[in-house]
Specification:
alpha+beta
C-alpha cells in the first residue's frame, strides 16, 4: 500500500514537472519569437531610414548639381550660365516689362505670358512707328513758311522796256543792212533811246533819260533799255515809283512787226531778260499803271533737302534755258542768236533769212533741247515781281500837252504815245522760307519719344542693353570670361 502511494506520488510529480517544463519551453519559444520580430522590425526601420536618408542625400546632391542659383555656396559667379546672366541683367534694367518677363520665381507662367505678349505688342508698334519716322526722314521733304514783311522802304526792281519793232525800217534801208551780222550793225538799225524813251520820273523827280537807261539785247526784240536804281521806294501810289513816257513811232515799223505795242518787264536787279519771261504788253494812247507785288524765295540749300541751285540773278531757270538753246543753235546752225554773247566772233543768225529754217527747228525742238540741260531746279534765292495792271484813257488836255511839248500831232500821240507807271501796291512783301521737314535732331527726338512711350527706353536703357549686357557680359564670354555681373561689379578671384 505504501509503495503504491509512493509510486503514485512520484508519477504525479513527474507529470507536474513535465507540464511545467513544457510551459516554460513554450514561453521561452514565444519570447524568442517576439524578440526576433522586434529586432527584425527595428532593422527594417533602420534600413528604411537609411534608404530615405540616402535618397534625400542623392536628391539634394542631384538638385545642387542640376540647378545652382546665385547666392548658393556652390554657385560660381565667374562661370555663370548665360541665362542667369541675362536674368540678372533683366532684373535691373530700366526697360519696362523686361523684368517681369524674365522672372520665373516670383511670377506664374500665365502672368509671364501676359507680360511677354505686352512686351511683344509694344515692341512691334515701336518698330512700326520708328520705321515710318525713318521713311519720312528719308524723303527729305521741306516745309515752306510764309511770312508777310512790312519794311519801311522797298528796293525797286529792274525795269526793261522794248519796242515791239526790233529794227528801224528807215535806218535799215538807209544803211542797206538786210540782216545784222553783229551787235554793231544791230545797234545801227535800232531805234535810238531818245526817240523811244521820251521822259523818265522816279519818286516824283524828273531824271535825265540818257543817264538812267542802259541797253540790253533781247532775242527777237533787238536792242531794249533797262532802268536800275539804288534809291528806295517809301510810299505807294502813282506819284511814286517809276514813270516813263514812250513813243512807238509806228510809221517806222518793219512790215513783219505784228504788234503796235511796247513790252515791259520788272525783274530782280541784275537779271537778264529771257524770251521765256512773259512780258507785259502796253497799248499806245493809254495810261498804264502796273502794281508790283514782291515775293522773295529763300529755299533750303543743304543737301539732300536742297531742290535748288545757285542764286538769282547769277542763275535763273530762264537764263539756263536760254544758254541751252543758244548752245544748240551755235552747234547746229553755225550762228548765234542776238542775245548770245558766248562767242562774239560768230555771226548773228538771220532769223528771216538763210538761218530761218534752222532756228525755227530749234524752236520746235526746244522742249527736247532744254530737257537735256540741268535747268529743272530754281535758284535758292530769288525775288519775283507779280503785276496787277490798270489802264485808263488820258485826258484830252494831257494829249494836247504831249503833242505841243513834242511838236507832234494829237493823232500821232494817240497812235504812238503811252505812259507806264511802276510802283508797289502795298509797302509789304511775302517771304517764303524753306526749311527741313525733319532734321536729324528731330528724327532722334521722335524716335526717342516713340521708344519711351512704348517701352520706356531712354539713352541710358540703350547703354544698359548694348554696353552693359552685350558689351560687358555676353561678348566677354567669347573670350572665356563668363562672369555674372556687368558694369561696376567686383568679381571673385578665380
Amino acid at each position: 500500500c505504501c509503495s503504491s502511494s509512493l509510486l503514485s506520488a512520484t508519477m504525479t510529480l513527474n507529470n507536474l514537472d513535465s507540464d511545467d517544463t513544457n510551459t516554460t519551453l513554450d514561453n521561452l519559444d514565444n519570447d524568442t519569437t517576439i524578440h526576433q520580430d522586434e529586432e527584425q522590425q527595428e532593422q527594417e526601420q533602420q534600413e528604411q531610414e537609411q534608404e530615405q536618408q540616402q535618397r534625400g542625400d542623392d536628391k539634394g546632391a542631384e538638385s545642387s548639381k542640376k540647378r545652382p542659383i546665385p547666392g548658393d555656396d556652390n554657385f560660381d559667379e565667374n562661370n555663370a550660365p548665360a541665362h542667369f546672366v541675362i536674368n540678372e541683367w533683366a532684373q535691373g534694367t530700366s526697360i519696362h516689362g523686361v523684368p517681369y518677363v524674365t522672372n520665373s520665381i516670383l511670377w506664374h507662367m500665365w502672368k509671364r505670358a501676359v507680360w511677354i505678349a505686352l512686351v511683344i505688342i509694344s515692341s512691334s508698334f515701336m518698330i512700326w512707328q520708328i520705321s515710318l519716322l525713318i521713311a519720312e526722314y528719308r524723303t527729305f521733304d521741306v516745309i515752306t513758311d510764309t511770312h508777310t514783311e512790312n519794311p519801311i522802304v522797298l528796293g525797286f526792281p529792274e525795269v526793261t522796256v522794248c519796242n515791239a519793232n526790233p529794227h528801224s525800217r528807215s535806218r535799215r534801208e538807209e544803211l542797206g543792212i538786210e540782216a545784222p551780222q553783229s551787235e554793231e550793225e544791230l545797234f545801227k538799225i535800232s531805234t535810238p533811246l531818245e526817240e523811244f524813251v521820251k521822259e523818265t520820273w522816279f519818286n516824283g523827280h524828273h531824271l535825265n533819260t540818257s543817264q538812267v537807261w542802259r541797253p540790253q539785247i533781247i532775242q527777237d526784240l533787238g536792242r531794249c533799255w533797262s532802268f536800275t536804281t539804288q534809291e528806295k521806294v517809301q510810299r505807294t501810289g502813282h506819284n511814286f515809283g517809276l514813270k516813263v513816257h514812250l513813243d512807238l513811232n509806228q510809221d517806222d515799223y518793219e512790215l513783219s512787226t505784228p504788234f503796235g505795242s511796247a513790252f515791259v518787264w520788272a525783274l530782280q536787279q541784275g537779271s537778264q531778260v529771257s524770251v521765256h519771261d512773259t512780258p507785259l504788253g502796253t497799248k499806245p494812247g493809254k495810261e498804264t499803271f502796273v502794281g508790283l507785288e514782291l515775293t522773295q524765295y529763300e529755299r533750303e540749300k543743304t543737301a539732300p533737302w536742297a531742290r535748288c541751285r545757285g542764286e538769282a540773278p547769277e542763275y535763273t531757270q530762264s537764263q539756263c534755258r536760254d544758254e541751252c538753246a543758244n548752245r544748240y543753235v551755235r552747234e547746229n546752225c553755225l550762228c548765234r542768236s542776238s542775245q548770245d554773247t558766248e562767242d562774239d566772233s560768230m555771226r548773228l543768225c538771220e532769223i528771216h533769212g538763210r538761218d530761218e529754217r534752222c532756228t525755227q527747228q530749234a524752236v520746235e525742238n526746244i522742249n527736247e533741247v532744254i530737257g537735256n540741260c540741268d535747268c529743272d531746279k530754281p535758284p535758292c534765292f530769288e525775288q519775283i515781281y507779280d503785276y496787277v495792271v490798270y489802264e485808263i484813257d488820258p485826258s484830252e488836255v494831257a494829249i494836247d500837252y504831249w503833242a505841243n511839248s513834242r511838236n507832234v500831232t494829237t493823232e500821232h500821240v494817240r497812235k504812238n504815245y503811252l505812259s507806264v507807271t511802276f510802283n508797289f501796291r502795298k509797302m509789304q512783301y511775302k517771304k517764303l522760307t524753306e526749311s527741313r521737314g525733319m532734321s536729324f535732331s528731330q528724327l532722334l527726338g521722335s524716335i526717342g519719344g516713340s521708344m519711351g512711350f512704348f517701352l520706356g527706353i531712354s539713352l541710358v536703357s540703350i547703354f544698359e542693353l548694348f554696353g552693359d549686357l552685350v558689351g560687358m557680359r555676353l561678348l566677354p564670354r567669347l573670350f572665356g570670361r563668363k562672369h555674372l555681373y556687368g558694369l561696376g561689379a567686383h568679381y571673385k578671384s578665380e
